[in-house]
C-alpha cells in the first residue's frame, strides 16, 4: 500500500515539509513496510516557495524592498523557464519592521523579485498572492517593473495606497511585460464593502478612517488603470495586486491550490496511492473556501482515492469535512488539550496521530 502525505504548513509551528515528515515518520513507525510519498503543498500564500523547493525547484535568493522600503532578502523558486514567486516573501506582514504601515506599505518588493526572475531568463511567473502587508492596488509592483505613477505636476507618487488618491496619470511606456499567472483563493473585488481595504485592511493595521481613505484611493486608481477589472474576482487579492496584475499586465487568475498542485506534480505523486493525508494548522470554514486541504481532497476524490486530514485543531463537523472530501480528521488537540503544547510539540504529536491513521486506514 502507498500513502501520499500532502499537507500545507501549520502556521506559526511547522512548515509544510516538516508536517509531511512528521506524518511520514509516524506512518513508518506503525507500518514499516508501507510505501510513503511526501509532497508538501501550498495554496499561493506564505510557504509557496518552500513547497516548490521541496518539489524539486531551485531556490534563488535576491535583494528586494520590504513593504516599508527597507531592503530585505527574498527568494523565488525556479525550474526551467518557470518561476514561482510568493508575494509574502518581500511584501508580507512578517516583513514589517515593527509597526504596520497600512497607508504607505508597498508591493514594490514583489516587483523586484519578478524583475530579477525575468532578468534571469524566466518567461512564466506564477505569483502566489497571499499574506500581504500592503493595500496599494499593486501600484508598487508596477513601478518596480518600469511603470510611472504621476501626480498632476508630473511628479512620481510615493509608495502606498493612500497616495493613489493623487494619481493623475499612469505611464506604462517603460513597463516590462511578463507572463503572469496569479495563484489565489481570494475572490474579492478591488474596492467596496467586499473589497481589499474593507475586508483585509484591518488585518494590516488600518483604522476605520484608514479603510475609508484606502477604499477611496483604490476607486480612483481603478478609474485610471482599468475600471473594467475592478469587479473581477480576485482583483482585491493582496491589497489589490490582483487588480494591477490583471488590468495592466494581462495576468490570469487561477485557484491557488489547483495551480500549485499542477506545478508541484501532484498527479504523478498520487499514482499508485491508496490513501492521501493532507492538512493545515486549522481546519475551519476557510478551509472549505479553496484552501490547500480542500484542494488536495478534491484532487484525490477525482482519482477515487480517500483522503484524511491532520490539523492543529478542527472546527468542522463530520458533514462539513465530508463536503470537502475529507473522510476523517485528526487534530493535535485530540491528543493534547493544551494549545501551547500543541504549538511547541507539533511534530511529535503529529507522529502520534499518524499512528492512529495507520491503525484505522492502512491495511496491514
TrEMBL record:
InterPro entries in alphabetical order: Glyc_kinase_flavodox-like_fold (IPR018193), Glycerate_kinase (IPR004381), Glycerate_kinase_RE-like (IPR018197), Glycerate_kinase_sf (IPR036129)
Family annotation (Pfam families): Gly_kinase
The organism's place on the tree of life at top rank: Bacteria
Gene Ontology MF term list: glycerate kinase activity
GO BP annotation list: organic acid phosphorylation
Keywords: Kinase, Transferase
Keyword Repeat: no
Keyword Nucleotide-binding attributed: no
Sequence similarity: Belongs to the glycerate kinase type-1 family.
Name assigned to this protein: Glycerate kinase
Amino acid at each position: 500500500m502507498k500513502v501520499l502525505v500532502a499537507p500545507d504548513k501549520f502556521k506559526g509551528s511547522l512548515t509544510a515539509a516538516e508536517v509531511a515528515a512528521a506524518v511520514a515518520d509516524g506512518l513508518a513507525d506503525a507500518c514499516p513496510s508501507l510505501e510513503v510519498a511526501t509532497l508538501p503543498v501550498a495554496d499561493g500564500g506564505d510557504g509557496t516557495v518552500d513547497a516548490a523547493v521541496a518539489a524539486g525547484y531551485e531556490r534563488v535568493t535576491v535583494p528586494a524592498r520590504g513593504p516599508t522600503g527597507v531592503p530585505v532578502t527574498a527568494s523565488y523558486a525556479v525550474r526551467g523557464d518557470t518561476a514561482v514567486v510568493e508575494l509574502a516573501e518581500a511584501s508580507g506582514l512578517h516583513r514589517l519592521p515593527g509597526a504596520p504601515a497600512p497607508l504607505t506599505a508597498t508591493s514594490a518588493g514583489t516587483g523586484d523579485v519578478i524583475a530579477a526572475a525575468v532578468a534571469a531568463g524566466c518567461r512564466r511567473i506564477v505569483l502566489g498572492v497571499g499574506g500581504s502587508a500592503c493595500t496599494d492596488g499593486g501600484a508598487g509592483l508596477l513601478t518596480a517593473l518600469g511603470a510611472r505613477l504621476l501626480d498632476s505636476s508630473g511628479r512620481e507618487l510615493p509608495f502606498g495606497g493612500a497616495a493613489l488618491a493623487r494619481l493623475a496619470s499612469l505611464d506604462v511606456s517603460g513597463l516590462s511585460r511578463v507572463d503572469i499567472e496569479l495563484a489565489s483563493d481570494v475572490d474579492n473585488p478591488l474596492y467596496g464593502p467586499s473589497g481589499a481595504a474593507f475586508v483585509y485592511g484591518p488585518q494590516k493595521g488600518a483604522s476605520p478612517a484608514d479603510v475609508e481613505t484606502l477604499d477611496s484611493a483604490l476607486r480612483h486608481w481603478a478609474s485610471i488603470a482599468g475600471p473594467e477589472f475592478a469587479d473581477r474576482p480576485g482583483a482585491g487579492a493582496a491589497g489589490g495586486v490582483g487588480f494591477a496584475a490583471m488590468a495592466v499586465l494581462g495576468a490570469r487568475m487561477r485557484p491557488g491550490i489547483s495551480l500549485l498542485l499542477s506545478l508541484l506534480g501532484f498527479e504523478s505523486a498520487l499514482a499508485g496511492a491508496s490513501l492521501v493525508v493532507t492538512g493545515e494548522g486549522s481546519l475551519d470554514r476557510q478551509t472549505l473556501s479553496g484552501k490547500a486541504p480542500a484542494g488536495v481532497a478534491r484532487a484525490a476524490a477525482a482519482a477515487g482515492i480517500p483522503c484524511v486530514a491532520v490539523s492543529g485543531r478542527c472546527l468542522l463537523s463530520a458533514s462539513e469535512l465530508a463536503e470537502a472530501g475529507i473522510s476523517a480528521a485528526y487534530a493535535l488537540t485530540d491528543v493534547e488539550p493544551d494549545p501551547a503544547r500543541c504549538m511547541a510539540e507539533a511534530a511529535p504529536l503529529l507522529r502520534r496521530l499518524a499512528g492512529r491513521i495507520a491503525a484505522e486506514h492502512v491495511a496491514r
